[in-house]
Amino acid sequence: MSAPEPVELLQRLIAFNTVNPPGNERAAQEFLAGVLGAAGFRCELLGRTPERPNLVARLDGERDGPVLCLLSHVDTVLADPAEWTHDPWSGELDGGFVWGRGALDMKGQTAAEVAAACALAQSGWRPAHGALLVVVVADEETGGGEGAVWLTETHPAKVRCDFLVNEGGGGILEYGDRRLSCLGCGEKGIFRFALNTTGVAAHASMPRVGENALVKLAPLLERLAGRQPSYSLTEHPRAFLEAIGALDGGDVAAAVERIRAVEPGLVGILEPMFGVSLAPTRAFGSDKINVIPSRARLVVDCRVPPGLGEAEALAAIHEIVGEDGYELEWTEQVVGNGSPFDSPLALFIRGWVAEHDPQASVVPVILPGFTDSRTFRAAFPECAAYGFMPHRHSTRADTDHLIHGADERIDVRDLEYAATFFTDLARGMLV
Ligand SMILES: [Zn+2]
What we know:
Elements: H1 6-15, H2 26-39, E1 42-46, E2 54-60, E3 63-73, E4 93-94, E5 97-99, H3 107-122, E6 129-137, H4 148-154, H5 156-159, E7 163-166, E8 172-175, E9 178-187, E10 189-198, E11 202-203, H6 217-226, H7 235-243, H8 252-262, H9 267-270, E12 277-284, E13 291-292, E14 295-304, H10 310-321, E15 327-334, E16 337-338, H11 344-356, E17 360-367, H12 372-379, E18 384-387, H13 396-399, E19 409-411, H14 412-429
Parallel strand pairs: 3-6, 3-7, 7-18, 9-17
Antiparallel strand pairs: 1-2, 2-6, 4-5, 5-19, 8-9, 9-16, 10-14, 10-15, 11-13, 12-14
Helix pairs in contact: 1-3, 2-3, 3-14, 4-12, 11-14
The structure holds zinc ion (ZN).
């Protein structure tokens, strides 16, 4: 029996509709358990609800040692077939790409990880020390309550790991004549809040009677539209700016202008790394069109670099909207976290890229959004976790806009390149 190829695995995975909600990941997970089980992995399906299991596949070594986890999620966001060239669940192979929802986020990485793991196990390879874990979770796209969060809380012993590779990195940014290979070293925290205003209700036919709480949001909204909080540079973004030679004397604003001069399109995606960000996303006033609201509410999505917390978020809010004219209400607080740029796993990745893509340099990045890596780092503080699936042929300019978008597809050469990486990674880390 030959090991499954990453392209074929990905085509099969895309054909399972795992749009979340509702996810319905069971059929895809049973398929993967079958493939990994046949290769020699010990597989368990563990879920809070029967139709949404998580897959934990384990290959133990001869002796105790570090556990390397290849993590991915098998759920996807929705897709509207009317907007696509190929059916989003066809997994069609066309023009050197596999097309379909999840090709990049992130069934492609699942396929590369599983193909690598199966090829190793079927060849008779076993970790000399430690264990290789392949964990495929459900429910990443809506926060992990059925997936990574539930799994790490309910079965920590089964998924405890020392090294973890997940989505959120490995893409190539072109910067001037340089190729930057992004190593996802951390995720920002979430400090969402509402700004509440109060007034006096009245009939809307007489605007000067009463006191309109909604209108009191206007100056707050205008200040939020005007600018972002001052930069607060943390460890990884500092290393990033130093690596690209943009940080001259520690002035982040000057560094951002240098980036703009070289590659203006990168500012929007890099700037969130450099500090707290504030984005107003929802506003509420009266339930009735003819009633002047006595209460109004502006909801703001606030993201905070790893290592910083409520105090820094509060300082940013005060800096931008001032301290008066509203009541602040926190609605969600999740502290971000990160892993060092010089752990044994990070050093392995940097060495591998130097060998296989010598024009590229690995740079640490912080993700403005969320991945399951944050959950694993929080559950297992000793775990070094990174977002990394190496690409060589396509760049982030080619792929970023396809993630959660129409015509999501992955270059077959990159899929195979990534499978080579995961094979080398297991061999290199579990010696
Ligand atoms: Zn994802």
